[in-house]
Amino acid sequence: MPPAETFLHQLRTALDAGGFVKLTLSSPLDADPGLRNVYGRVVALKGGPQLSLLLRYATRDTTKNFPFAEGLARIKPLVESGFASAHLFTTTGDWELRQRPGEPPRIKARRATFNVAPSPDHDRLKPRIVAPDVTYLQALGVTNAQGAPRPGMADKLRQIQRFVEIFSHLLNEQEGALTPSPDARSLRVVDMGAGKGYLTFAVADFLRNAGYNAWVKGVEFRADLVELTNQVAKDAGIEGLHFEQGTIAQHGLSSGLDVLIALHACDTATDDAIFQGISGGASLIITAPCCHKEIRPQLTAPPVLADVFRHGILCERESEILTDSVRALLLEIHGYKSSVFEFISHEHTGKNLMLTAVKRPRQTDPDAARRRLRELLAFYGITNQRLARLLGEL
Ligand SMILES: C[S@@+](CC[C@H](N)C(=O)[O-])C[C@H]1O[C@@H](n2cnc3c(N)ncnc32)[C@H](O)[C@@H]1O
Q1: Which residue's alpha carbon is at the smallest distance from atom 2 of ligand 1?
Q2: How many beta carbons lie within 10 A of that of residue 223, not counting itself?
Q3: How far apart, in Å, are the Cα atoms of 364 and each of 260, 331, 359?
Q4: Phi/psi at 140 (nearest 5 deg)?
Q5: How far does residue 85's CA lie from ligand 1's centre (Å)?
Q6: Which atom of ligand 1 is nearest to the CA of 288?
Q7: Are 160 and 349 in contact (CB under 8 A)?
Q8: Which domain holds residue 187?
């Protein structure tokens, strides 16, 4: 049987037997321009279970639900000739179909990642980019065996899901410009200050499910966390994911990095991480800075702002805003398009600002941005900022 036919047969069998977990198509072959991925899952509707297909385009998603037979008919041409990579997860085994142009098609069977099919109830109608019932979330104590958040972990789960959503959109935006490599779908990601690894795991799992040949490394200072996360990665069978003990500033990164992540790395550790990202040649840098301590004692109030700086909390906020503005400007000077935004609402966490940078295909003249940086630093009397020093801008 040709590999695509075997794949469709396994899909049909799993749907009929109630063992279907999810389906992902990735690496589009441009049959439908702009279509990047297709995600399939089962949802419970009034007339019975249906196959729900989410079509992800560069700038929008569309979801349609079909009775199984019709859904299979819709998915068939996409599996056969629309995508180079297809992953099927069932409770009896996982299947990976590869149909790269110029290569013979291949299908691989693997041990099942999931041993129960997700419940197709109403609450699950909203597609989740990180399934809450995955084994690593259970092992890390985020969710229980039913995929529900453990007490006190609902915000963490929301944060992980939101982060991967942002990550996937940034990756779509950047895909064409990622560091060229012999295998266009291979990706090197480093997560600095990985902690318990919630986001590192979610990124590694998301990338593998999306068909990337991803190598994801978490760097963490605490040896106990490194030991724990390496064990969970091994038990969950996530390929290409590992954790190393070390400090952000001293971690030697070779060039050829694609993505640098540093979420909630304290104070100037964020600067060290951004510097590592820039020097490693990362195309995408994603940070959520916290504990901005470096600039505050240096701030000299320009006379017109004396009434702002009189209030401790406002002075603190001003120094946070300033630190991240300086970092964003430094990233622009070094060839990135930077953005700052709230990534999760204030109700859920105070540490909710994200600073991201996407490498521009061509370097623009940095002189104007450099001039603006000098003026900004001089206006507030700042003589020391770690990232500016590391980059030789001070
Ligand atoms: C607040 S936690 C954040 C964990 C994870 N990034 C997240 O957002 O869920 C910060 C982690 O970074 C680690 N860390 C802080 N400074 C570091 C440094 N300079 N080098 C390596 N790890 C560091 C801490 O040990 C801690 O586990």
Answers
A1: 195
A2: 10
A3: 22, 12, 11
A4: -85, 0
A5: 34
A6: 8
A7: no
A8: 154-390
Please give the distance, rounded to the nearest whole angstrom, from the Cα atom of residue 19 to the centre of ligand 1: 39
Please give the chain's pLDDT, 394 residues, in tens.
899 999 999 999 999 999 999 999 989 997 787 788 899 998 887 778 899 998 887 666 778 899 999 999 999 999 999 999 999 999 899 999 999 999 999 999 998 887 777 776 644 434 467 877 788 999 999 998 888 889 999 889 988 988 998 898 888 776 654 444 445 568 999 999 999 999 999 999 988 887 788 999 999 999 999 999 999 999 888 889 999 999 999 887 767 899 999 999 988 999 999 999 999 999 999 999 988 889 888 988 888 999 989 999 999 899 999 999 999 999 999 999 999 998 875 555 556 789 999 999 888 889 999 999 999 999 999 999 999 999 999 8
H-helix or E-strand spanning residue 307: helix 306-309
CATH of the domain at 257: 3.40.50.150
200-20-116 Cα angle (round to 5): 65
Q: Answer yes or no: do 171 and 279 share one domain.
A: yes
| In a domain? residue 146 | no
| Residue 95 and residue 191 share a domain | no
Same domain for 172 and 280, yes or no, is: yes
Model confidence, pTM: 0.70
Query: How many angstroms is it from 224 CA to the middle of ligand 1?
Result: 13
Whether residue 64 is found in the same domain as residue 192: no
Query: Considering the domain boundaries, does residue 369 fall inside one?
Result: yes
356 in the same domain as 311:
yes
Q: Among 108, 127, 146, which residue terminates a domain?
A: 127
